[in-house]
Structure formats: C-alpha cells, structure tokens
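Table S2 (text version). Query chain:
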Amino acid sequence: MAHAVHPIDVTPAAEALLAANALPVSDLRGDPPVVLFGAGADDRLDGVVGLELHGTVALLRSLAVDADARRGGLGMALVAHAEQQAAAHGAQAVYLLTTTAAAFFARLGYRDADRGHAPAAIAATRQFSGLCPASSAFMVKHLLRDAPG
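Corresponding structure-token output:
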C-alpha cells in the first residue's frame, strides 16, 4: 500500500499522536525547528515523523504510528521519506535515539553508534542531551549519495 507522506505543521493532532506513543513534544518548536511529515486518510493523522537538519547530519525523531494503522508499512514509508528529505538537504548520515524500536530501525539499515562519538550538532540537540534517557539506543544510517554523472 502506497502512503502519501507530506510536510505537516505541529498541530494538536500531531502532538497527541506523539504523546500517545510516549514521545516528547516539548521541543518540537525549538531552534532549529523540527520538520514534521505525516500521512493519513480522511483528514486523520495516522503517522508522523520528525527530522532535525544539522548540515551534513540529521536527527530522525518523533516516529509514531497510530495503533490502528500499524503493520501496513506506514512507519517504513515515513522513515524513507525523512531520509530522502535529509539527503536532499545535504545530510550524509541520519542519527536517532530510541528506547523501544531499535530492532525496527535495524531492519531499515540503522546500526548502533557510540554516543561518545556523536557529531557535535547531534550531541547538542535536546533529544540527545536530555529528553531521551542515556539508556536509549543511539543509531546511525549513512546515506548513499548518487554517483556524479
């Protein structure tokens, strides 16, 4: 099933979906702002993902899919869209922190990373520096660049 993923604003519906999945919302309007992408049907928000762009690196965050919309590939579609957007804005690697979905992200090509070697821009994010517990899995995916030509 194809999922139409598109940019969305920080709305009460987006915040409610994130909160229902125990994800932080207090820094969504930070600096730099989190770019949110969403998907759904019939004016319903079924899934959301956030992206913080920091030059050649990006932080994938705030992935949430409504319980009734799971198991249909929406989470994978949201992540793929965020990765495409990160690459289009010059990111060479996407990092994330998760307490519950490391196996899901591993299936999408993310690998465990050493928090002590996090890029400075990622380490400075509120997600990394305090909102996500130190016990969170820290993962990275290096994005493939198209060969010139």
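Notes on Table S2: Helices lie at 12-20, 74-88, 102-107, 120-123, 126-131. The two ends are 33 Å apart (CA to CA).
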